[in-house]
Amino acid sequence: MAVTESAPAVPPAARTQTRPTDRGGEHEGILRRQSQRESAARTYARSLPIVPVRARGLTIEGADGRRYLDCLSGAGTLALGHNHPVVLEAIRKVLDSGAPLHVLDLATPVKDAFTSELFATLPGELADDARIQFCGPAGTDAVEAALKLVRTATGRSGLLAFTGAYHGMTAGALEASGGAADVRVTRLPYPQQYRCPFGVGGERGAELAARWTENLLDDPKSGVTTPAGMIVEAVQGEGGVIPAPDDWMRRMRRITADRSVPLIVDEVQTGVGRTGAFWAVEHSGVVPDVMVLSKAIGGSLPLAVIVYRSELDAWEPGAHAGTFRGNQLAMAAGTATLAYVRENKLAERAGTLGARILGRLQGLAAAHPCVGDVRGRGLMIGVELVDPDAAGPDDPVPPPAPALALAVQQECLARGLIVELGGRHSAVVRLLPPLTLTDEQANAVLDRFADALAAAERAHTPHPPASRRATAPRNASGPSH
């Protein structure tokens, strides 16, 4: 089966911005009522003031008639893009069958098919001895389940997590995320090339990060007792699209295994082919004790599970539950998505196309001093924007430029391109296109991004000297192998 989605007919940027429509009033009215009725906690709606009414593949059409190329993809949820035919067919089949849509955790043919397809994609060593827990509908619910599982299995309460992490918005997940603090969570350095916490980067920086972790666990005076588990992302997404070096991931596996500490890998955003492998841990060959899965596994609908080694299954009946853990439509859509990605080798396609996109962006970086770093893995890509004039003699890496990143995002939207921001300072422009992205679509995305970057840079530096170049070392950070 081949990927057959064709590039959508999207009007040029200028027409996208100015095309008249009879629905402008509806568009403005919906946005106005949203701002009046919804909470101050809303996020995407603030930076993306659009009202989607139709979508297919990469393309969204708003209520005002404008069209956009969607490189947010539901924060990575839409592996096959919007309304993919195989997903719609799977949903319709369940609806037409008369099957119950709400079944709590009862066994059903739909669930059995989903579990079988999911297990077929897992690392073999885990799949051969795995248990699965269906959680509440969001990834954060699965994180909560994973933390509860390892605490129950080990009888310990502490947790190892990493700076820059993001695992969700519920209480336990927030404890494990980089922006929260809790006495039960010990923060560890996450290696990165561009802003290495030790100032050296590369293999040396990753080695120092690993030694720090070992010392903390083995020093009887460190104040850190043996924890219930370690939770890590193989690519930090919200943290700024930072791929963990493969050797470092293997080192974390050895450190935890040698000390009987369960290793939890959060694959909520990296899973289902996003990074160029079906699961991001496959790049390093690591087999974790627990995998946290959500987003793309539901084929655009809410679904979250954890898969873990059977020896950890120390729960009593009812120890973890959730009313909507039996989402039949999501399981059907997820089965279709997992099978389509597997059968069409979309993970491999993501790796090939992602490398091509990174190369194009690296060329763009050479002409724009405000691009500090280009990095990513597969179709999980980040462009960190910086202020090249503000680098000091003792810190050659320029400071992040969140205002410029926001301007780039707004310029992208004006040109019909939806991108997201992330990173420690919200200075990383993130690209998460669907895995069905064609070469033609990729070129359209990059053309619009390049145009938006140039426009934002001009607005922020009105009269830059023609000869000015960034003096700081410039990076194109990909994964370490």
UniProtKB/TrEMBL annotation:
Q: Could you tell me where the Basic and acidic residues compositional bias lies?
A: 20-38
Highest taxon listed in the record's lineage: Bacteria
List its EC numbers.
2.6.1.76
Q: Which Pfam family is an annotated match for this chain, by its short name?
A: Aminotran_3
Q: What UniProt keywords apply to this chain's record, in alphabetical order?
A: Aminotransferase, Pyridoxal phosphate, Transferase
Extract the Gene3D superfamilies matched here: Aspartate Aminotransferase, domain 1, Type I PLP-dependent aspartate aminotransferase-like (Major domain)
Identify the cofactor(s): pyridoxal 5'-phosphate
Question: Which segments carry the region annotation Disordered?
Answer: 1-38, 457-481
**Main EC class the enzyme belongs to:** transferase
- Give the record's pathway: Amine and polyamine biosynthesis; ectoine biosynthesis; L-ectoine from L-aspartate 4-semialdehyde: step 1/3
Q: Please list the GO terms describing molecular function.
A: diaminobutyrate-2-oxoglutarate transaminase activity; pyridoxal phosphate binding
Q: Which family does it belong to?
A: Belongs to the class-III pyridoxal-phosphate-dependent aminotransferase family.
Return the protein name. Answer: Diaminobutyrate--2-oxoglutarate transaminase
Q: Which organism is it from?
A: Streptomyces vietnamensis
